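Sync notes, pocket subgroup
Present: LS, DG
LS reminded everyone that the earlier model was apo-only. Rerun requested with adenosine-5'-diphosphate included. Inputs:
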Amino acid sequence: MFNSGLKKKNIELNSALELLKERISVLENENNRAHAILDSMVEGVIAVDKDTRVLSLNPTAEKIFNTTRENALARIFLEVFPNNDIAEVIALVLNKGKFVSRELSLVWPVQRVFQVNASPIFESGAVNGCLLVIHDITEIRRLETMRRDFVANVSHELKTPLTSIKGFVETLLEGALDDKENSVTFLKIINNHAERLNTLINDLLDLSHIESKEIILKKDKFALSSLVDEVILGFRSQAKKKGVEIKTELPHALEVIADRSKIEQVLTNLINNAVKYNKEKGSVRIYSEQFPDKTKIIIEDSGSGIPPKDIPRIFERFYRVDKARSRELGGTGLGLSIVKHIIELHSGFVGVESTEGLGSKFWFTIPR
Ligand code: ADP
């Protein structure tokens, strides 16, 4: 009798133990799932208690604040993350028990812009902590600024020749038309400005076409030296006027696989610059270097060179070392960014080495 009672109790205990094990396993699974979600989030997530002690943080948060879980856990938020703006957001959430969203700039450990969303954590109806979700929006803000700058630049570039055209047309209409000699001069100036507008719009169309993801390269195998010879032919008179000598040292047998007309545009833009920014009686040398995986083409000039501070930005749209000089020479500031885009479409690279006053070496690579 006594034995069977004990047996029953034992069975009851065993099944309670099984149930407990099952519950623990369910909880463990849930916990693992929650951790997996947190660990894979691109947003930084930090939870703090009501004294702002760090309860948990995910790997993205560790990365953003250049810290580790071991270092951060159980410590006061401001001790680990010396950022007053975020601490202020946490204080607001803990005090008011309401969701707060703010855009904050972080200067340490890196300069970035974050969207910080903070929610209260409730326990038995009272605020017991705060959950921060930190979203890095630096890239979005950078692209927005770039787009704004681009629109401003295009408007400015279009406005300058248009203002001149309008001015000269008005002068002609107000009577200068009767002055034969001056009116021809004015018409020539108008023509130059119209030409400038045309070049600018063509460059903009090229750029937008190249930047659009729909572009399909028509790749062929062709001899590079004959393409370079064709391009040089177009610069003969411009180079002759300046006394600039263009030398090509490309092997006749050198063939590349690429979109011929696009590479023609790259060569045209680079050789144009090499002549344009050259000194009187200067020289341009075009040669290649062969690597197992790529062909490198170098366009070397004996021109004005580029100051080191301008080199990192030289391939940006509308970036010019000397705006007035570029305009005077018929430049749009878009040539090099077109070059960069075309080469990147070919999975190649572009670059420049330059010494002020001595000249520049612009190069690009085409994978073999
Ligand atoms: P641009 O139409 O003004 O020539 P690019 O995009 O082709 O526009 O070039 C951007 C700027 O880079 C130029 O305005 C010029 O200041 C500089 N640059 C380009 N190529 C050369 C070169 N070979 N020598 C010196 N400066 C150059």
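DG: Residues 217-368 form a domain with the Heat Shock Protein 90 fold (CATH 3.30.565.10).
LS: The pocket of adenosine-5'-diphosphate is lined by residues 269, 273-274, 277, 301, 303-304, 306, 314, 319-322, 326, 331-336, 360 (CB under 6 Å).
Action: DG to write up.
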